[in-house]
User: Fold this.
Amino acid sequence: MRLFTAALACSVLSQVAHAFYLPGASPHSYKDGERVDLFVNALTPMLAGTDDSKLKSLINYDYYNPLFRFCEPEGGPKKQSESLGSVLFGDRIFTSPYDIHMAKDNNTCKTLCLVPDVDAKEAKFINDRIREDYALNWLVDGLPAAEMKIDLRTNDTFFDMGFNLGNNEGAHQNRPALNNHYEVVLKYHKPTVDTFRVVGVLVWPTSIGGAQTATPVCDAAGAEPLILNEDRTQAIRYTYRVTWSESDTPWATRWDNYLHIFDPKIHWFSLFNSSAIVIFLCVMVSMILFRNISRDISRYNDTDFSEDIQEDWGWKLVHGEVFRTPRNPLILSVLVGNGAQLCSMVGVTLVFALFGFLSPSNRGSLATVMMVCWSLFGGIGGYFSARLYASLGGQNRRKNAFLTATMLPTFIFIIVFFLNFFLLVAKSSGAVPFGTMVTIIVLWFGISAPLSTVGSYYGSKHGGIRNPVRVNQIPRQIPPSPKYLRPWVAAILSGILPFGAAFVELYFVLSSLFASRAYYAFGFIALAAGVVALTTATVTILFTYFILCAEEYRWQWRSFLIGGGSAFWVLAYGLFYWATRLSLESKTSMVLYLGYLFLIAFLDFIITGTIGFIASYWAVRKLYSAIRID
Ligand SMILES: *[C@@H]1O[C@H](CO)[C@@H](O)[C@H](O)[C@H]1NC(C)=O
Ligand SMILES: *[C@@H]1O[C@H](CO)[C@@H](O)[C@H](O)[C@H]1NC(C)=O
Assistant:
């Protein structure tokens, strides 16, 4: 019976999963000769093939940016609707004039259009984009057009999404050649005799120069490349040829070729590395803490002993101070509340990702789920913030509720707005459109902020957590503490370990964010996130113990700082990544990179700081509940 229920639950779950997959995941079956739409997405800078190549820009351009002069469909291109996350991550999808019919016109050379008058300014713009390794991104039936490549480490072939706008390698270093002919290979699968499904889209772009008005032959062999002159008006002819080939890849696994994990060994290595760090840490921390604390506690609680000669020492000395209200309890509780909201968002998103709901076939689903989760978890933020504020002895509940709902989002919104301004000036398509801005504001003020207020209400109703020991009337003097326990030094020192546990994954995350490489090693990143959380918690507890032993009782802000210490290393690593993997030429790209990097580090600071603070709070309460105070 139980088995049956489980099976039923599973099948219901998979139904739900299926519904969740829509619309990307229900197969589109074509009939023989049915029109197959080709959509064009924004142009993105791409890492050229070689291992030591660098990314040269961070700005996306609309396919129909007037300076490119690409062929437009009759009646003008039409914008396709997209999800919130897809828009945020830069997708701008339009219709195109390519005329493709399922399994028809095999191997026919076709002219897309002839652009008779590309002027010098446009030619320079195109050449500059070729020099920066821009790639075209097409979509056919939801599948991105790709170039077939070979992973040199394993000799596996895989599909690398996007293909070059032009060629600037070797002889073309100074005279870039524009690719104006596309060899398109469309792979289809026939589950039944008269249904056709698209299961692969490959493009080999080439450059065919010579007289652009002659009859097209679509033959790149022997043809001279098309090099645009930057000082006169010229013609460009775009041609394409579609080859249909039957494939035995079924529709369900058509993404497998695209989802190529480069060098899975390095993920395993990173995981092994971080697990070693965690085990080492946990053993060390538990040894230090258990040995010392149990000795301390038995000595503190040994009445005969303490009545006669024993004076209090170490962390027991500050028992009347540890729960003294820290400076700025309002800001601290607002940060922790928002941190808790972000932590829950990350946790739930990773769970979704682990179950495969966020595969790249669902464009933008990752960012959409994150935004929606963040809005829905406003209540968690409000609740944590209000309860912590009450526990820290804060009085101004309304101010706390208000700041929890608004402070952090406003700050982030200002940064995003500022970056968006730069994107607009650079005429990039990456700028967040007005409508999307409005959607985000609605999510924030319509869902997150009200939920946060409700959370705050319940948080204040439940009130603060009772402290296990009383706070003295008069604050103690604090002796000077050792150098390594000064707040910033301690933060930077303690940040090394969580960062060390995750920096390999961080490399992949940065590459997928900036070099538009899809990221799908979600199993690895979920484990890495778990390891980071554990490491942060243990290191912070350890440092808090040291701080209290040094009779420094202002541990609250320090534990937040120490927990967030990894943000410093994330920032440093981001700069290192810039130095080694990017060669940004425009000021806009630099500002964008620094802006995004700062945002990532800031969010990391809030999240890990919150983890550190909550872990220390728990540990301090445990510690002081265990001793007897006379
Ligand atoms: C298209 O042509 C290629 C080679 O020219 C051939 O292998 C393929 O089977 C053809 N496809 C169809 C649907 O006729
Ligand atoms: C990959 O193929 C090349 C030539 O075909 C061969 O020399 C090389 O050893 C292969 N590498 C691996 C890892 O199989």
User: Anything to note?
Assistant: The chain has three domains: 26-253, 269-301+311-323+487-630, 328-466.
